[in-house]
Amino acid sequence: KFPNFIFKRTFLSSIKMELKGQILIYTEAGNKECMSTKTKIESLLLPYAEIDLSQHPDRRIEMETLTDRDTAPQIFFNDHHIGGYYDLIDLEACGKLDGIIDEVKNTPTPASAPRPSDQDHSVSFRRIKLEQVLATMGSQGVLSTHRRFLTAYHNSFYGKDLVEWLKGMKLSYEEALRMGGDLLNEGLIVHATDPDHPFADSDQLYQVVGGGYPSALNSGLTTTLGSELSAVKLAENLRKCVTSLYARHISEDGNKVNYEGIKSDVEFAKYVMTSQQLQRVSLSNLSKSEHIAMFINIYNALIIHGIVSRGAPTNHWARYQFFKNVSYVIGGHNYSLNDIENGVLRGNRKGMVDLSKPFSSNDKRLTMALDAPEPRVHFALNCGSKGCPPIRVYTPDKLDSQLNRATKSFLTTGGCIVDRETHRVSLSPILKWYKADFGKSDAEMLQWVCGHISQTEEGKVLQELIDTNLFKVSWLDYDWSINH
Prior knowledge:
The protein is globular, with a radius of gyration of 26 Å. Helices cover about 45% and strands about 10% of the residues. By secondary structure, the chain is an alpha+beta fold. The protein has a 4-stranded mixed beta sheet, sandwiched between helices. The longest helix is centred in the middle third of the chain and has 23 residues.
């Protein structure tokens, strides 16, 4: 370990670093080497600008012309083309990187250097400084586990302890308060127990975003540093990751998953890294269709992530625990599979074996719940069993037609069987478990079903049975075996 005075001097010098020039990286969403490049540059406390070719494909020709290469990442220090990630590592290994960094620190960006698009966000020095402070808090023992009644808050701290620690780093009292406020305003820390209020030198308990939920599959302090993405952009990146995975490891009908293949696929590692960015995403500006599509895709991907990481549940109790405990940190809050399905997409309704709603009246996650259940999501969510609907990727602009198609497909391929002679209507247990979402009575539920298969022969027969009130409802068996 460094002597304490050396650590303080290094800490103070790092938070004052600035660049006169520019570091620019051409990147692609989900690319592991791009992520490693950004992490490496951030570890050097260097701000950079990014041109995401996934968002700006028109800039690819520019990159290829400037570099004579067709793959990302490509790194520029001012107008000096460094190369890719391994070129950067090689420069550091042979001792040449420091000189290049000194040049970009002291030399303004020349007109010949590539420029970021107006929409591209430069990772600011302020943000990197705060990330570095956060990481240092962990290594210096500022973070701990605090208990309030029966709840344990991991990676948490009192406001007064952070202020004292920062003062020990030779910051003034005012600077320490300002830094605490910046950590809070940037969404890097949250209030652990009390209502929102400005950061204070007090006994108020704060918690590192993501660090409070160590069991979440995307949690931890190892999240890629840098600026948070908008929810729309992150949702798009996640869709690209899962679409690539699904294309290689899920059958064409969406009913069978090669979990072992996913586990060993480098694309899955890229997906896991992308999912970590959910920790700090802002969900406040999503449209309803963006909101629903994002949570459906997250749910289906989280199911796969959970089975790959923890194995498939094999009995009813194990399934209950799986859906209750397998989770992601999203926007600073923990969402289990149960929270996403019953809390968000069903408008905060009790699950089929739950005694209470997922979100209490003072739960901040309640703002994410739909105003009313969207019944069609039951035919879009895949729980990892053979009895579930197929896995698909949903997009905001086509969501309505995609949900209608998924609902009709499920009902007409074994989810609803109508027998004219016996007047019996046999339905998937999904409609029994979530009956309240489809209507107040069997007749209302069947009318809802009929509305989605009305153009089929079975739908016409069902409408006759509803009109004459002669139907008998029964429930089909459900296949809980894993869909591998």
